[in-house]
Amino acid sequence: MRPLLAERGCTIAAGxxxxxxxxxxxxxxxxxxxxxxxxxxxxxxxxAGRKDRESxxxxxxxxxAVKSMVLTDASGRLLFYSPAQPASCxxxxxxxxxxxxxxxxxxxPVEILADAGYQCxxxxxxxRVVTPPHRKFKKDPPEWYEExxxxxxxxHSSRRIRVEHGVAHLRNWxxxxxxxxxxxxxxxxxxxxxxxxxxxxxxxxxxxxxx
Length: 211
Hints:
The chain is α/β, with parallel strands linked by helices. It has helices at 2-8, 25-29, 91-97, 100-106, 121-124, 143-171, 186-210, and strands at residues 10-13, 16-18, 33-42, 65-73, 78-81, 85-86, 111-113, 129-130. Strand 7, helix 5 and strand 8 form a beta-alpha-beta unit. Helix 1 packs across helix 7. The longest helix is centred in the last third of the chain and has 29 residues, at 143-171. It is globular, with a radius of gyration of 18 Å.
């Protein structure tokens, strides 16, 4: 069942599903803003002696995990959840491997909000990936700069907070709190849960509009 549910993709309307990252053009065609973020799921530690054992150690949490890239719209509705990669892979490297830069450079104009882990993608995508401002002064900044920097950083953070809400809804599923099964099934499990949750979100939204 997991592979079948994973192949369904994310439901965004009745009979309309997004299955690949290339379909991010849906946002540009409808004039919407997307939000991207990386998220991790803890997994069992690989057996001693395996050559790829260290690749699952997260640099952020110092735990054995796999990493995925989540894409939502501005309201936090799930649009795409990538296959899992070992957590030692940086967010920006994972995005490049998934082809985000190529899709944004060649596709419709769309704004993608991201955190500091994706800095430098803005220049590679013609400004379509928007990240928090760089801190220009590391020591002894002018009095006016700190206030301006914090205001810009908080404004960006408040715009992209919806992706955290989307990830939080996924975390409500116990299987994503920590995966105890085989790591090779992790991608199918994550994408299957995303498919079910996106269908539920769309159905709930449709019912509210009908009322």
